[in-house]
Amino acid sequence: MCSLCSFFKSTIGRKILMALSGLVLVLFVLGHMLGNLQIFLGAEVINAYAHKLHHVLPSSGLWAIRLFLLGTVAVHIWTAISLTLDNRKARPQGYEHDKPIQASYGARTMRMSGVILLFFILFHIAHYTARVVPSMEYGEEGVLSETMVPLVKHGEVVMKEGEPIMTFNVNDMMVQGFDVWWVSVFYIIATGLLCLHLSHGFSSMFQSVGLRNTLWRKRLDQAALVYGWVVFLGFAVIPVACLTNILEVDPTGGAAEPVAAITETLHK
Amino acid sequence: MNLDSKIPEGPLESKWSSHKFNMKLVNPANRRKYHVIVVGSGLAGGAAAASLAEQGYNVSCFCYQDSPRRAHSIAAQGGINAAKNYQNDGDSVKRLFYDTVKGGDYRAREANVYRLAEVSSDIIDQCVAQGVPFAREYGGYLANRSFGGAQVSRTFYARGQTGQQLLLGAYAALSKQIGLGKVKMYNRHEMLDVVKVDGHAKGIIVRNMISGEISKHAGDCVVLATGGYGNVFFLSTNAQGCNVTAAYRAHKRGAGFANPCYTQIHPTCIPVHGDQQSKLTLMSESLRNDGRVWAPKDKETAKQIREGKLNANDVPEDARDYFLERKYPSFGNLAPRDISSRAAKEVCDDGRGIATTGLGVFLDFRDAIARDGKHAIEERYGNLFEMYECITGDNPYETPMMIFPAVHYTMGGLWVDYNLESTIPGMFVGGEANFSDHGANRLGASALMQGLADGYFVLPYTVGNYLGEQGVAAAGQVTTDHPAFAEVEADVKGRIDKLMSINGTESPRSFHKRLGNIVWEKCGMARSKAGLEEAIQEIQALKKEFWENVRVVGDADSLNPELERAGRVADFLEFGELMCRDALMREESCGGHFRVEHQTDDGEAKRDDENFTFAGVWEYKGDETVPALHKEPLIYENVKLVTRSYK
Amino acid sequence: MEKTMNLTLRVWRQKNRLDVGKFVEYKLENISEDSSFLEMLDILSEQLVEGGHEPVAFDHDCREGICGMCSMTINGVPHGPEGGITACQLHMRHFHDGQIITIEPWRAKPFPVIKDLVVDRTAMDKIIQAGGFITGRAGSAVDANAMPIDKQTADYAMDAAACIGCGACVAACPNASAMLFTAAKVAHMNSLPQGKAEKNRRSLAMVTTMDGEGFGGCTNIGECEAACPKGIPLDMIAQLNRDYALAQVKNFFQPVL
To answer: Would you say domain A14-83+104-267 falls under CATH 1.20.1300.10?
Structure first.
């Protein structure tokens, strides 16, 4: 067997792949959270951030990153499924008296939290990235009012070749999206599960690649817990703020005047 | 019976090297034509099987456990001796040789003991090369401790699990050969008989303990490394499965059994409690380095302690009898095993024993804790203290430990010559199963040394010599088609059928317990003529009763622990009688054998060198016939026989 | 003065490998709290023999916690509820009068039940045969002190080598993984200088055999460590993962097997 095949076939090899893909996702989640939290700095900032994400690379680059992330998720899922199937086979008959000795709830429910998170991610992408969730399509009647707003920097509309740069009003998309109560509830539950998943996964990652010992296990376990909570709070605070009207829609995208007025001025 | 010990000519120091030179060799290309059967996978068997396979012989190895890694060598705690003199404290091959001969109370064969001391260094080298994690000093070199009454620090150890680590070393070497296909391993197979062809051992009959299938195995020679017979006492520190069957079956086929009465009683075991107990647990002898052994001076105090009315800690200093320190001032609590055990027994016989049964003495760490601090004691013995607390529920940091002697090791075994070949040609015996190196008493940390010496450095040579003498034309010529195999197989099957058909009322375990009681009471720490004669009568009666009234439930063609035990108990019954006969014959006290008729005025063992400087070798003469005694005189050319004194 | 207790046992009975097996309930009376768990089973055996029934078959040998033969899951925990000991070291004082105790065999595909509580653990031997050794044929060794080994390394190797091969780690793991067992041997030998020469071969061969025997994978949840009577830590598994990954990298560029 070729050495790569034997690596992928082995339980340890697959587990290492799972850890490495997990690491990418852990970092992605952190970045995503920090990005999202910019909504508290105002529509101007979050919209500018979103604009930057979309335009800093050419669109092929953007797609490459998206595919990489999707690929990572796919690897994470494939290793999880194939290892789970092997693990089930290894214990065809279970114990009648079956109670864990010490394993944490998070560790024992990785599969459950993982599966629910997968469904959440699919929904989340459909909702905010592809925007194809029925009745929540961007710009459809009754959901979101405006599609594009000008890019704003320091309170001024950013102009390019005499035209304002138009960008997506991410602020309103988020606020209005979370104003639907069940979307928010699903989101909060999912980020809670993410916290649970990370509370084991974060430290486990280091174990799988062999970078953990008894001393560092305690530290990493604590770090995992802290990290899980940070991620949970960082994400969950946004829907909560939306539902409690701390965050509100801003149809101008942070500009002093409505878009229509600006455009009008320009055309005069 | 021919008891030619085949000790090589020449001075003691060069016997082994000149013998090795004179041995027949087998050409490496011809070795694969031979097939060696090894029974037992402990230190001796496992090491021999691995080493022979490394040399190129084909080996079949058998063990009754589910894996060769579980042989009872694994339970040895303390350490292994070697004359390395790494401590620069005056140790040498000659000193180790001398200590071993003296420790064995001058009842071992000089040449064998010298060879043992000589190869002891190679064993340590070999084990370290295999990755045995011996204790080390901060500088990275091997650590040693003094052990079992030795005046030099020559004991190598791996925490309190030296036996385990050495066995796992041998097991690893064996596993490699199994993986390479040079050794075919038969787990859960019990040897039930040996097959002789033209007088030579050429095969064995075994029972597959899972399927019950009886099978025949032929080879060019047979190596028995089947351990000791301590379980004849029912309660001992041996594993539950340890048995005399293989050795005794070989004895019945013509192998002389030497010195069966030499049994070692280890002084520091946890006392018996209740009648449901199945085994005795040894606490490492190293505890005696810091613990002080005592019993109350008067019977009344002892009685109050037994009844739980008085706490041992409340016994004032002047009411305590530190009897080992009192009787043996220079060795104190480190007196050899036989001496310490007997001293404890005397105290209990005197009515001053403690523990609920009155069969126990204290091993007290109070003074050591006061001197060195609890932390230091914990460092040294933490795991042992935990083990003690786990079994008894008492905390030895607070209340003194209770200890009592228990059967631990058997020095007697099948008689072998210098080549470790028994009186059946082609049948070699190694480790505890043979009688050779310890005389009447074994020193601490010597059993591991002997097992590995036999397995790594003696049998691989002497077995090769035997095979070389047989000639390559004879290699693999005997097969299981030989009529001798069918004959012995029929015997084995007949015996099993008989055991299954008796259908009496009493379980094999119950018979075992009763036998154990008889031999412990009458052939244990102190033996008398009258007691031994009674014991022989009682054992004969018990044997008769066994064959009339034993009840073996289950069937013979599946896993049946009751049948296994019944077979073993049947052999123990016959063997127990032989042991008593040997003890009766030996009208002296030496080492682990103490005859009350032969003691000094202050109760010390009294040897009779004039009449008993020999190995007593018994020849089987038939079930209803008294076995015949043969004597191999022990000639001491290098050591002067003196009375052992540890005062 | 000796305290005794009455117990109800629910014991897995299975005639042989092919039998389906079921729980059978037994009542036991007057069990001393000083008895060990296996002595309690001995008493059950005697009781069954008296009634002409076959006793419960279970593996056991040394009865002092070192041979690794005893193997039973007591109330869902391999070797019973007290940590750090084997079933043979478990004493009845940890149970109480009237308690119901469920006893099951090790459950894992590579450990088929032979009878009642007895399982076949040769799969573990096969892992060792694949590479759990340091090749050093008798006679070839240099002086034992020729190669100093720092104490920390020697102690670590000893921690790993303390494994008794009982299989409790496999029994406790929800995936029936033998990672802790394999890792302990790999950690023992790979960390010693003597074992370096075969390090990569060993890591690859033992893991391949482990997977091939049908053990599950590790999910890093630590049940094995908690059930291990010898306290083998999860560190060893981390080392196995690392050594295996490095061996695979090496093997990719320059095959070692």
So the answer is: yes
